[in-house]
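Supplementary Methods S3. Complex input for the adenosine-5'-triphosphate-bound model.
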Amino acid sequence: MIHVENVVKRYKEVIALDHFTFNAEKNEIIGLLGPNGCGKTTAINCMLSLLTFDSGEIKLFGKPVNPNDNDIKRRIGVVPQELALFDKLNVYENIDFFCGLYVTDKTKRKQLVEEAIQFVDLDKYRSFMPKKLSGGLKRRLNIACGIAHQPELIFLDEPTVAVDAQSRNFMIEGIKRMRENGATIVYTTHYLDEAEELCDRHVIMDNGKSVAQGTLTELQNSMTTEGSLKINFVETEEAVNAVLKKYPSISRIEKKNDNFYITFISSDEKLSDFLKFIDEEGLTYTELTSEKPSLSDIFLELTGKELRD
Ligand SMILES: Nc1ncnc2c1ncn2[C@@H]1O[C@H](COP(=O)(O)OP(=O)(O)OP(=O)(O)O)[C@@H](O)[C@H]1O
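Predicted complex, serialized as structure tokens:
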């Protein structure tokens, strides 16, 4: 569906894409993950031929990209990071405008706009102007504008940034339904939990390069860290941290809900040594399990960076 090979894109002295390689198969959600400035938006814009690139090859639907190829454009939907809505058009009219760029038949368009409104659940807001909508509802409208013409290939650039939890869950379910309906989706996000839940495969980007690609299991199997220990300590967070920071081979400590997630520098770390240490230090726990590396752990190992909001 998408074939990107060795693409280089420079902005004067900045190399935004450095031999970037990326493939997406039909009917998958592929996560494009990376820190701010790693080149995600540049990569998407090159794939959409909104930007020219210096070298390499990009093919969509098996053909080289060309900004004037309307047949290909009709098969693609884009939901950009920045909201692209007309303030003077209401919800229905905004969707109708964007759908009208690809669908000229009025009866067909009416049906598609209605389906998009139902899809993002904006029926009761159809005559609202964008400025009357909350941030989450505006994002839903942005999605409806990008997908109303029912494209086969959809680019979603950080669609859940700054939306409330309810709208986010609604969008995630909607994106899964798009895949069920046969779409291929390129999804960029900073939320790695979200990527784990939603994406079939992940491409991890750093400094304009794809540093790893694969399913979560493939990525987990290629890591040197064994994942983390999940421990529910009885003592206070402060007391636990004070003890753990004395243990030299811990690379990361994270507290989520009531649990500590502890990652060790090496996969050769002996659990028995660590348990002996916490016992000698007087810590007690109610539960201890071993977890495979999360996408966050993998990201940190590959890029040396945490990907946070
Ligand atoms: N028009 C431009 N002129 C010069 N440099 C640019 C331009 N657009 C992007 N860059 C630089 O290229 C690099 C990649 O930027 P890009 O916007 O593609 O990253 P990103 O991963 O999408 O970041 P974000 O998550 O913040 O949107 C950055 O170093 C950025 O500063």
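DSSP finds eleven helices and 14 strands in the chain. Residues 11, 14, 16, 34, 36-42 surround adenosine-5'-triphosphate (CB under 6 Å).
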